[in-house]
Design a protein that fits this description.
Structural class: mainly beta
Length: 192
Protein backbone atom coordinates (compact mmCIF):
# COMPACT_ATOMS: atom_id res chain seq x y z
CA UNK A 1 0.00 0.00 0.00
CA UNK A 2 2.82 2.40 0.91
CA UNK A 3 4.55 1.66 -2.40
CA UNK A 4 1.43 2.64 -4.39
CA UNK A 5 1.05 5.86 -2.39
CA UNK A 6 4.68 6.84 -3.05
CA UNK A 7 4.29 6.12 -6.79
CA UNK A 8 1.06 8.17 -6.96
CA UNK A 9 2.73 11.08 -5.12
CA UNK A 10 5.70 10.94 -7.48
CA UNK A 11 3.43 11.01 -10.54
CA UNK A 12 1.55 14.01 -9.17
CA UNK A 13 4.80 15.86 -8.54
CA UNK A 14 6.24 15.05 -11.97
CA UNK A 15 3.14 15.72 -14.08
CA UNK A 16 0.77 18.18 -12.39
CA UNK A 17 -0.69 19.26 -15.74
CA UNK A 18 -1.88 15.72 -16.44
CA UNK A 19 -4.19 15.90 -13.42
CA UNK A 20 -5.31 19.53 -13.76
CA UNK A 21 -9.04 20.11 -14.07
CA UNK A 22 -10.52 22.02 -17.01
CA UNK A 23 -10.55 25.78 -16.39
CA UNK A 24 -13.56 28.00 -17.15
CA UNK A 25 -12.97 31.55 -18.40
CA UNK A 26 -15.29 34.51 -18.96
CA UNK A 27 -14.29 36.72 -21.88
CA UNK A 28 -13.28 40.16 -20.58
CA UNK A 29 -15.66 42.41 -22.48
CA UNK A 30 -16.09 44.80 -19.52
CA UNK A 31 -12.48 45.93 -19.88
CA UNK A 32 -12.64 45.46 -23.66
CA UNK A 33 -9.70 43.07 -23.62
CA UNK A 34 -11.38 41.18 -26.44
CA UNK A 35 -12.76 42.03 -29.86
CA UNK A 36 -14.79 40.63 -32.73
CA UNK A 37 -13.69 42.37 -35.93
CA UNK A 38 -14.35 41.76 -39.59
CA UNK A 39 -12.90 42.73 -42.92
CA UNK A 40 -14.10 42.43 -46.49
CA UNK A 41 -12.39 43.38 -49.70
CA UNK A 42 -13.66 46.64 -51.19
CA UNK A 43 -13.80 46.50 -55.00
CA UNK A 44 -10.49 44.63 -55.06
CA UNK A 45 -8.63 47.82 -54.07
CA UNK A 46 -8.52 47.80 -50.27
CA UNK A 47 -10.13 46.41 -47.13
CA UNK A 48 -13.26 47.63 -45.40
CA UNK A 49 -12.96 46.87 -41.68
CA UNK A 50 -15.41 46.95 -38.83
CA UNK A 51 -16.26 45.41 -35.50
CA UNK A 52 -19.07 44.43 -33.19
CA UNK A 53 -19.00 46.55 -30.05
CA UNK A 54 -21.30 44.36 -27.95
CA UNK A 55 -20.68 40.65 -27.44
CA UNK A 56 -20.10 38.13 -24.66
CA UNK A 57 -18.43 34.79 -24.41
CA UNK A 58 -16.83 32.08 -22.36
CA UNK A 59 -14.47 29.19 -22.90
CA UNK A 60 -13.22 26.08 -21.18
CA UNK A 61 -9.53 25.21 -21.39
CA UNK A 62 -7.99 21.86 -20.49
CA UNK A 63 -4.25 21.62 -21.09
CA UNK A 64 -4.20 17.86 -20.56
CA UNK A 65 -7.17 16.98 -22.77
CA UNK A 66 -8.13 19.42 -25.57
CA UNK A 67 -11.27 17.36 -26.21
CA UNK A 68 -12.66 19.06 -23.07
CA UNK A 69 -12.06 22.53 -24.55
CA UNK A 70 -15.00 24.59 -25.76
CA UNK A 71 -15.95 28.15 -26.66
CA UNK A 72 -19.22 30.08 -26.94
CA UNK A 73 -19.72 33.62 -28.25
CA UNK A 74 -22.91 35.66 -28.65
CA UNK A 75 -22.80 38.87 -30.71
CA UNK A 76 -25.30 41.73 -30.66
CA UNK A 77 -25.52 42.40 -34.41
CA UNK A 78 -26.99 45.88 -33.86
CA UNK A 79 -23.60 46.87 -32.42
CA UNK A 80 -21.94 46.65 -35.86
CA UNK A 81 -19.56 49.59 -36.33
CA UNK A 82 -17.57 50.45 -39.48
CA UNK A 83 -17.05 54.09 -38.45
CA UNK A 84 -19.48 55.25 -41.15
CA UNK A 85 -23.12 55.78 -40.06
CA UNK A 86 -24.73 55.49 -43.51
CA UNK A 87 -22.87 52.26 -44.32
CA UNK A 88 -23.67 50.86 -40.87
CA UNK A 89 -27.39 51.49 -41.43
CA UNK A 90 -27.18 49.61 -44.74
CA UNK A 91 -25.27 46.67 -43.23
CA UNK A 92 -27.88 46.45 -40.44
CA UNK A 93 -30.75 46.49 -42.97
CA UNK A 94 -32.48 43.48 -44.52
CA UNK A 95 -29.98 43.63 -47.40
CA UNK A 96 -27.40 42.16 -45.00
CA UNK A 97 -27.71 41.39 -41.27
CA UNK A 98 -31.41 42.33 -40.90
CA UNK A 99 -30.82 43.15 -37.22
CA UNK A 100 -34.50 43.86 -36.58
CA UNK A 101 -35.25 40.21 -37.32
CA UNK A 102 -31.91 38.69 -36.24
CA UNK A 103 -30.45 40.79 -33.39
CA UNK A 104 -27.93 38.11 -32.40
CA UNK A 105 -25.30 35.95 -34.02
CA UNK A 106 -23.65 33.13 -32.13
CA UNK A 107 -20.95 30.49 -32.25
CA UNK A 108 -20.83 27.32 -30.18
CA UNK A 109 -18.01 24.83 -30.58
CA UNK A 110 -18.70 21.14 -31.11
CA UNK A 111 -15.08 19.98 -30.87
CA UNK A 112 -11.57 21.31 -30.27
CA UNK A 113 -8.37 19.48 -31.13
CA UNK A 114 -4.71 20.38 -30.64
CA UNK A 115 -2.86 21.12 -33.89
CA UNK A 116 0.65 21.33 -32.40
CA UNK A 117 2.57 21.85 -29.16
CA UNK A 118 2.89 25.60 -29.77
CA UNK A 119 -0.69 26.46 -28.74
CA UNK A 120 -2.57 26.05 -32.03
CA UNK A 121 -5.98 24.38 -32.00
CA UNK A 122 -8.59 23.43 -34.60
CA UNK A 123 -12.09 24.48 -33.59
CA UNK A 124 -15.25 23.09 -35.15
CA UNK A 125 -18.68 24.37 -34.31
CA UNK A 126 -21.97 25.91 -35.34
CA UNK A 127 -22.17 29.54 -36.44
CA UNK A 128 -25.63 31.11 -36.44
CA UNK A 129 -25.86 34.28 -38.52
CA UNK A 130 -28.87 35.91 -40.17
CA UNK A 131 -31.06 33.10 -38.79
CA UNK A 132 -29.02 30.38 -40.53
CA UNK A 133 -26.85 27.87 -38.66
CA UNK A 134 -23.88 26.35 -40.49
CA UNK A 135 -20.91 24.26 -39.35
CA UNK A 136 -17.59 26.10 -39.55
CA UNK A 137 -13.99 25.11 -38.87
CA UNK A 138 -11.00 27.33 -38.15
CA UNK A 139 -7.71 27.50 -36.31
CA UNK A 140 -7.05 29.47 -33.14
CA UNK A 141 -3.75 30.20 -31.49
CA UNK A 142 -3.06 30.77 -27.83
CA UNK A 143 -1.49 34.21 -27.39
CA UNK A 144 -0.51 33.77 -23.76
CA UNK A 145 -1.58 33.04 -20.18
CA UNK A 146 -0.65 34.17 -16.68
CA UNK A 147 -1.40 36.20 -13.59
CA UNK A 148 -2.82 39.68 -14.07
CA UNK A 149 -2.06 42.74 -11.88
CA UNK A 150 -5.43 42.41 -10.07
CA UNK A 151 -4.90 38.92 -8.63
CA UNK A 152 -6.66 37.00 -11.40
CA UNK A 153 -5.46 34.61 -14.05
CA UNK A 154 -6.00 35.30 -17.76
CA UNK A 155 -5.64 33.35 -20.99
CA UNK A 156 -5.93 34.70 -24.53
CA UNK A 157 -6.58 33.29 -28.00
CA UNK A 158 -6.96 34.65 -31.51
CA UNK A 159 -8.39 33.19 -34.69
CA UNK A 160 -10.06 33.99 -37.97
CA UNK A 161 -13.15 32.52 -39.62
CA UNK A 162 -13.71 32.84 -43.36
CA UNK A 163 -17.36 32.95 -44.31
CA UNK A 164 -19.47 33.65 -47.35
CA UNK A 165 -22.51 35.84 -46.56
CA UNK A 166 -24.45 34.08 -49.35
CA UNK A 167 -24.19 30.82 -47.36
CA UNK A 168 -26.17 32.56 -44.61
CA UNK A 169 -28.90 33.94 -46.85
CA UNK A 170 -27.33 37.37 -47.46
CA UNK A 171 -27.38 37.69 -51.23
CA UNK A 172 -26.77 41.39 -51.78
CA UNK A 173 -24.17 41.47 -54.57
CA UNK A 174 -21.10 43.56 -53.84
CA UNK A 175 -19.03 41.88 -56.55
CA UNK A 176 -16.72 38.86 -56.46
CA UNK A 177 -14.02 40.58 -54.37
CA UNK A 178 -16.52 40.92 -51.49
CA UNK A 179 -17.84 37.35 -51.61
CA UNK A 180 -15.81 36.35 -48.52
CA UNK A 181 -15.85 38.05 -45.12
CA UNK A 182 -13.07 37.42 -42.60
CA UNK A 183 -14.25 37.41 -38.99
CA UNK A 184 -11.32 38.01 -36.61
CA UNK A 185 -11.75 36.93 -32.99
CA UNK A 186 -9.50 38.03 -30.12
CA UNK A 187 -10.54 36.58 -26.76
CA UNK A 188 -8.93 37.32 -23.41
CA UNK A 189 -10.62 35.38 -20.67
CA UNK A 190 -10.51 35.68 -16.88
CA UNK A 191 -10.40 32.34 -15.06
CA UNK A 192 -13.43 31.83 -12.82
Amino acid sequence: MMKHTVIAAALLALAPQAFAAPETYTVDTDGMHASVNFKVNHLGYSWLTGRFNDFKGSFVYDEADPANNSVEITINTTSLDTNHAERDRHLRSDDFLDVGKFPEASFKSTSVSREDDEGEYRVRGDLTLHGVTKPVEFEIEQVGAGQDPWGGFRRGFEGEIELKPADFGMNYDLGPAAATVYLEIHLEGVRQ
